[in-house]
């Protein structure tokens, strides 16, 4: 059997938002019983059928790189993480729906991974405003995932989800909100599963099928 082609997807976000639990659920279709802090980076693999059910269907490996979530802005911290950002094909931005700061920090994570935040600039969000020009020429597919949906009181859920919808819009990305301890949120055929599959298809297309000069520079 020929080796499968693969793509590299970074999983970024603050410590404690549930990145390891999410990656385990995506790759093993199981709940992670005893999550621990990720030091450095942990890599797991998901098998994905590109354009499933069509004549173009093909199986790929999706490498999910779970990067440790320290948000320290020290140059040494960023330099240590920078090695994981090489030759990336997609980014999953993970935030805790019960922690507004973890949502705001996604701007910092994304810019760091895309090599836009050359020097520490402190807070990237001012009074809720966001400069979309920072992503005007971004060719890396992004997906925003909010965790701990089960921990939001029903009375506040609409307010929280409205706020995070604007967050995903800023990144020009689709949004998935879930509870990593309940696999039903990613059940086959669900809207979340469809969004996830669409994101992985887009990552694969950017890596293997779109071949203009700029994209080859970024994705080959």
Description:
The protein is an alpha/beta fold and 220 residues long. The protein has a single domain (6-209), classed as P-loop containing nucleotide triphosphate hydrolases (Rossmann fold). It contains six helices and six strands. Strands 2-3-1-4-5-6 form a six-stranded mixed beta sheet, sandwiched between helices. The chain is globular and about 50 Å long. Mean pLDDT is 85; it is low at 118-128 and 212-220.
What is the strand and helix layout of this fold?
Blueprint: E1 6-12, H1 19-28, E2 41-50, E3 58-67, H2 75-82, E4 90-96, H3 100-113, E5 142-147, H4 154-170, E6 174-177, H5 191-208, H6 213-219
Parallel strand pairs: 1-3, 1-4, 4-5, 5-6
Antiparallel strand pairs: 2-3
User: What does the main sheet amount to?
Assistant: 6 strands, mixed
Q: Which regions have little confidence, pLDDT < 50, spanning 5+ residues?
A: 118-128, 212-220
Q: What is the CATH fold-level name?
A: Rossmann fold
Radius of gyration (Å): 17 Å
CATH architecture call: 3-Layer(aba) Sandwich
Indicate the proportion of strand residues.
15-25%
How many strands in all?
6
**SSE string, helices as H and strands as E:** EHEEHEHEHEHH
* Mean pLDDT level: 85
Q: Structural class of the secondary structure composition? A: alpha/beta
Number of domains: 1
Helix percentage = 25-40%
Which overall shape is indicated by the principal axes computed on the Cα atoms? globular
Strand order of the largest sheet: 2-3-1-4-5-6
């Amino acid at each position: 059997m020929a080796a499968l082609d693969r793509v590299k997807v970074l999983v970024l976000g603050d410590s404690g938002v549930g990145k390891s639990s999410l990656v385990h659920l995506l790759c093993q279709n199981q709940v992670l019983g005893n999550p621990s802090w990720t030091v450095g980076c942990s890599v797991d693999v998901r098998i994905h059928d590109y354009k499933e059910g069509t004549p173009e269907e093909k199986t790929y490996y999706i490498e999910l790189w779970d990067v440790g979530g320290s948000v320290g802005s020290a140059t040494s911290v960023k330099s240590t993480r920078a090695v994981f950002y090489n030759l990336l094909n997609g980014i999953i931005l993970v935030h805790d729906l019960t922690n507004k700061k973890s949502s705001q920090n996604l701007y910092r994570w994304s810019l760091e991974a895309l090599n836009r935040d050359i020097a520490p600039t402190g807070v990237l969000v001012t009074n809720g405003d966001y400069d979309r020009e920072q992503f005007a020429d971004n060719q890396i597919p992004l997906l925003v995932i909010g965790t701990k949906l089960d921990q939001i009181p029903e009375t506040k859920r609409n307010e929280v989800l409205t706020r995070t919808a604007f967050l995903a819009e800023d990144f020009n990305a689709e949004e998935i909100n879930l509870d990593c301890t309940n696999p039903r949120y990613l059940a086959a055929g669900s809207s979340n599963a469809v969004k996830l599959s669409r994101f992985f298809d887009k990552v694969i297309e950017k890596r293997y099928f779109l071949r203009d000069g700029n994209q080859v520079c970024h994705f080959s």
